[in-house]
Amino acid sequence: MHTCSSSAAPSLATDESTANASVFLQDVLTGLSKTRKELHCKYFYDERGSRLFDQICELDEYYPTRTELGIMAEHAGAIAERIGSEAVLVEYGSGSSTKTRLLLDHLDSAHAYLPVDISGDHLQQTAQLLRADYDDLEIQPIVADFTTPFELPDAYVSLPTTIYFPGSTIGNLKSDEAIGLLVSIVDQCGPDGGLLIGFDLAKDAAVLQAAYDDAAGVTAEFNLNLLHRINRELDADFDVQRFAHVATYNQDESRIEIFIESLDEQEVCVGRQQFHFEQGERIFTEYSHKYRVDQFVSMADQAGLKMDALWTDSNEYFAVMHLFPV
Ligand code: AVI
After folding, report:
1. Does residue 135 lie within any of the structural domains?
2. Which of 11, 45, 196, 261 has its CA 20 to 30 A from that of 280?
3. pTM of the predicted model, to two decimals?
């Protein structure tokens, strides 16, 4: 019989990383105890997960990254015009700020750039590189999880602010979470500010299927890496070979749904807690919503935002939209 012998109960949080580890453990235990087991997609991005995501962005099948970059490259001037002069630009999930450079190059006397990212190290490196290239621009990195409310530094709160939210990360949120985030964006940008957002458009199911289940298996590795991470960080014993990546397109909900499927009946320990898996049972890991423009406009409307301008590529695969609070 499979028993969980670990002594690794979460210790009392004494520093930030211990506190993060116990939140991670709690989230995993709660998620795996649900009738439909689930793990939050924000946990994909440990060091290996972030590297795998970078590889996904380079895949032939994964069109969103290069398509959004193409839209930004083609329309940066027009986009910068809609944002206006002396902007304070706040970027959610800035990563290495590649698309932002296209924007910064065209903005008229931008006042400040505030990249927001959960990874402090990455943020500092990016800020350093940007400072070298944009000496007149104030660059003030903010380490925060933008999916939960956070404050801008006092010096910027009364200035008209444009929130830049590229990458279609909004599509990974459930629709009530997405509306909640848009509402907090309205709050943060103020009545004279705006939102510039990139989102993925609904399209042929075969194109979507290939993008989330690529031939080289990089997305599968990315998804299953979550189990490796749980094994390593939470003293668990997932036998990762006995699980498989599944990505399906749900036409009715217009979203890709990603799961980890158990290949046979098995028991798994996470710390001292044991979980039973039936053969074929799935752990839900991620939604990736694909919007029609009118659907996105109506979601934004519920949050108090109105479309100002829209840019897409020639295939209409991806959209970049500028919105104002109403
Ligand atoms: C980060 N996000 C926008 C990606 C997406 O396309 O939904 C995450 C991803 N998951 C699997 N492949 C890419």
Report:
1. yes
2. 45
3. 0.93
